[in-house]
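lol ok so funny story. i was supposed to be doing the assay writeup but got distracted and ended up predicting the structure for this chain instead. priorities right. anyway since i did it might as well share w the group, maybe its usefull for someone
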Amino acid sequence: MATDTSIGEEIYQSTTEHPDPVDAEIEGEVPQWLKGDLLRVGPGKFEWGNMSYNHWFDGDAILNRFSIENGNVKFSSRFLRSRSYLESEKNNRIVFSQFGTNAPPDPCKNIFSRFFSYFTMGEMTDNCNVNIVKMKGENYASTETTRMWKIDKESLDSLDPVDFGKKLSGPRSWLAHPHYDQDGNYYNISTSYIKRQNEIYKVPPAKTEKEDNISGLEMISSFPCKDGPTYYHSFGMTENYFIFIQTSVSFSNPIGMLFMKLMDWTYVDFLKFNPKLKSSFYVIDRKTGKVGGRFLAQPFMCFHQVNGYETDKEIVFDMCGYPDGSIIQSLYLSELRKGIKPEVHPPELRRYHLPLEKIDLRNPPTLLLDTNSDGLDYDLIFTGLELPRINYEENNGKDYNFVYGNGLSHKSGAFSNLYKVDVKTKETKSWDIDNCYPSEPVFIPHPNAKREDDGVVLSAVIGVRGQKSFLLVLNGEDMTEVARAYIPVKLIPLIHGEFL
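and the output, tada:
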């Protein structure tokens, strides 16, 4: 009989694509008002020839589509035809270095070309396997480099590549978690590793149908990396401020990144948790771009912010934090397939309070604000929640009550349940079924919603040991099942997605 430790081995494997839509078998009743497409993306292929990727974040991107209309669901999937994918397919080997895998030099090059290739970081990957984002009315697959791919949400075709790096200088990050305002502006944060500078950019909505993908790109704020570049995965936005999270996971040797191939190093090798480096929250005015304060906190690691909003006295900021950086190492495929080690700290749903009285836009960006010798403290709301989602359209940057997320199983290395947490009362509701491993929950409000949680939650569920994979529809209020849409395809863990 199989044990729990074999589940990670079973589900963290390569998959195949299914471009022709297949009908799902409905159990229950999918609401008639629910119409649209749930698009998800994540790593779907981990081997090329006799070579394998090392880290879960490395796998070549696959797109999943759940098309919902008139109570019916259709499923389809396609690999993203990135240059990374096509070159690997053509050569039957890993061609581009990824987050935790270093691609070897091209064996077809002469000895001198191969030698000099060791002294370059190489081309940034366009393997956009992290998120689905919206910009200028179009849909894009994105990752943490400056490259994105425009996609067709119906056919899942890979349409046009986008590279912010063509308009921005030097190697830099670009988040897969942007923010949007009510006017349709797209906001993102980038770190220039050469300038050692954090920069906030805006892309306005399209004015014409034939407009260039990133026309109107504008830097609206810049401020130095006080303690050098650090790893971050998301940021916050309230009515008047951006909140930039500087974690305690820093790039230990940025100059050494020039010799990555020579030393067979990867990006993960440069990410080190520094227990002596306090984390901090930069508060940036959205109108002027000026930094009004930098609040210090005890060292932590963070992938996902949840939400932030302003009161008369403070900025309330919620995030999923870790007391160290062990989670990054635990996402190597060799670790996931064995199950995450018990000593890896679970994520904590934390609430920080940033006092408005200490925000001063007249002072220089290097101003340090510290409430006491230990830095800001936090309220612990819940332990064990990741991949947080809220009613974004109605509540992002505003006072709110509810967050939906996943609970992580150490034994399987996968997300084993779904949570709904009231961030004010700490009341929790959950969905948990044996041998079912749900993905990131996505909340869709009812078109005539009267409450924040009036709607449904969608999650793609991986079935093992006799359970089929299915799209789960939950009542957003009480987390009870509304419907399941079983598909004749075994799903694998993907990362993020969007309901379009």
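The longest helix spans residues 83-91. The helical segments are 7-11, 83-91, 111-117, 260-263, 267-270, 326-329, 333-336, 392-395.
back to the writeup now i swear
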